[in-house]
Amino acid sequence: MEQIHDSGKRCLSILSSDENEELYSKSNSLNFEAGELIIKKGTPVNNIYFLKSGIVELSLNEAPHRQILNLLFDGEFIGINCVFSTAQYRFSARALTNCSIELLDKETFTKLLKANSTLSMAFIQYISWVNEGFLNWQMKLKEKNSAGALAFLISEFQKNFDSNSFEIPLTRQEMARIIGFSKESVLKNLADFRKEGLINSNGKSITIIDALRLEEIAKYG
Amino acid sequence: MEQIHDSGKRCLSILSSDENEELYSKSNSLNFEAGELIIKKGTPVNNIYFLKSGIVELSLNEAPHRQILNLLFDGEFIGINCVFSTAQYRFSARALTNCSIELLDKETFTKLLKANSTLSMAFIQYISWVNEGFLNWQMKLKEKNSAGALAFLISEFQKNFDSNSFEIPLTRQEMARIIGFSKESVLKNLADFRKEGLINSNGKSITIIDALRLEEIAKYG
DNA sequence: ATCAGAGGGTGTAATTTTACACCTGCGTAA
DNA sequence: TTACGCAGGTGTAAAATTACACCCTCTGAT
């Protein structure tokens, strides 16, 4: 079987126009500003959040020492594992950039899943794919030192932009919580990367100068 | 919605006797001895491995520095994320104890998933539940120091046994690779636990003496 | 205009973890 | 029987990471 998913969008594109109309008649469009809380841990699962645009962070705990689980980019469902396995969300979701979200009705989506086996198979493939990707991401981070993990994070962000210059919508502290090291380790590694001519950085703006060597560090050899 | 899954067994118990017969007419029972490789990374996904008894380890790489992803206990599907999202298994699975496995035919299972919406919903719930659990496990490990992570691992094993005395079918090296620290860290923390009267241990046998304090260390506060 | 807070940044000390060296006992293959 | 390898175990030195102290700049509120 070939890999057919590039994101959660594929699931929604499978719906017939009737099904689509039924789903969207009961859904709402929401906009969140950068920094806003989208889902608070413990909230009952009544809706399915589909991220139309923006970047979202999932974290286990609220401030101040929240552990960041994962980043979601546009085209993904937010917290999809909780929708069909727990009564409440088991983490919090926060907008890192301005976000546009479609709030689908869970009952309607469930009804469509049951009625449309093409959709349910696509959905099974989607959550398998998304979890497999998440698992790989975590494992790759786990086996790296602080420099490698930071380089890896920067490289991953770069994949979502066309240019070598882009903005990472994270504070140093947040980057630290994603890769599992301290804020100071992030700052010192960034300083090293600058000194060695791998990147330029100024606040949240970053320019990758030597992508090859950065990739090498990300691989941690 | 209440949480309805305790393991992958629930999915199989949904089948009608006709469906059950169809699935098992094309399946094989296999036994693996402790240490045997069950799935080699890169193997094409043609079957679905259901773990009837035993403990299995998933790892990203072969020896010598393999990173251990996860442990699976009886009643789980092995590597279920790969079945519907990739053409090849992206990790290796190895028997830690003697294992009994049912090798289901992927095409037949897929056919049943498409035909039986109760099964497909149960399966969606199962993979959501299993991945949510795995994610939680990884996050809990990530936020701990070496002593906390080791105490956590021991506590998790204890949940699968009735007694305070049990065998952990892992070498110190393997325990280290699961919790993400070095072999020496595991050994030194075990020695500390013994000195402080939290456990007794002799090779793979372990007896928990002070479960309360071990839990406290596992929580790392 | 000033003040407070947040974020970026750096140096140094303390702590944690790893690496290395080496010892033990046990099983097993020659 | 011997010898080898493997796993458990421990001490010490080296390396990596964190914690703390403190700096600067910017921004928004009073």
**Structural class from helices and strands of chain A?**
alpha+beta
The CATH superfamily name of the largest domain in chain A is: Jelly Rolls
Our measurement of the CA-to-CA distance between the termini of chain A, rounded to an integer number of angstroms, reads 33 Å
Count the DSSP helices of chain A.
9
- Whole-angstrom Rg of chain A: 19 Å
Domain unit count of chain A: 2
Mean pLDDT of chain A: 92
Helix content range of chain A: 40-55%
| Helix/strand order of chain A, N-terminal first | HHEEEEEEHEEHHHEHHEEH
Explain the overall architecture:
Two copies of one chain form a homodimer. In chain A, helix 6 packs across helix 7. The mean pLDDT of chain A is 92. Chain A contains nine helices and eleven strands. Chain A has two domains: 126 residues, Jelly Rolls; 77 residues, Arc Repressor Mutant, subunit A, CATH 1.10.10.10. In chain A, strand 10 and strand 11 form a beta hairpin. In chain A, the strands form three sheets. A four-stranded antiparallel beta sheet of chain A has the order 1-8-3-6. Chain A is α+β, with helices and mostly antiparallel strands. At the A-B interface, helix 3, helix 4 and helix 5 of A face helix 3, helix 4 and helix 5 of B.
